[in-house]
Write a structure and sequence with these properties.
single chain; about 160 residues; mainly alpha; two-stranded antiparallel ribbon; 8 helices; about 70% helix
Length: about 160
């Protein structure tokens, strides 16, 4: 099993587990996921936006796009952490916001699922810098004078 699928499995397992555990106040993670977009409409918080970014990061992990994984999971992590800075949530369609007084294990596992993707992307990028450099050279169009430069470097 490749490293990408190991990290994907870990991240999804943490996320699914987070959905079943207390996350904020008296709500389990799944309830926060379903009702979280109400907070967007009320302008209370943007932490919920981490969820679609996580899905994009998972797709990026499957398609082996470390840049996509790093970008989406890092932004998702920041959005999740923003919930700690602005601990408010809308609990119903009325739009009334309440303060989150307790973050349960579901919240921390949700955060861990994003952090595991950041770790995956950094590990992938640092493990293969020579492959990335080779791909960049391969994709670069041939420039006039490249052969002459190469020959002069060989003579030195």
């Amino acid at each position: 099993m490749s490293r990408n699928y190991v990290f994907l499995s870990i991240s999804i397992a943490l996320y699914v587990l987070a959905l079943s555990l207390p996350a904020a106040n008296r709500y389990i993670g799944f309830e926060c996921l379903v009702a979280g977009w109400f907070s967007l409409g009320a302008g209370v918080g943007f932490g919920w936006l981490a969820n679609p970014l996580m899905a994009i990061a998972w797709i990026g992990l499957v398609s082996k796009s470390a840049t996509t994984v790093l970008l989406c999971s890092a932004i998702a992590t920041v959005l999740m952490l923003s919930t700690l800075a602005n601990p408010r949530m809308v609990e119903s369609t009325s739009g009334d916001a309440s303060t989150i007084v307790h973050f349960g294990p579901g919240f921390w596992l949700w955060l861990a699922s994003a952090i595991s993707l950041v770790v995956s992307a950094v590990a992938t990028m640092s493990a293969s810098p020579s492959k990335a450099a080779a791909a960049a050279r391969k994709d670069r169009p041939h420039q006039p004078g490249d052969a002459a430069k190469h020959e002069s470097q060989l003579r030195k």
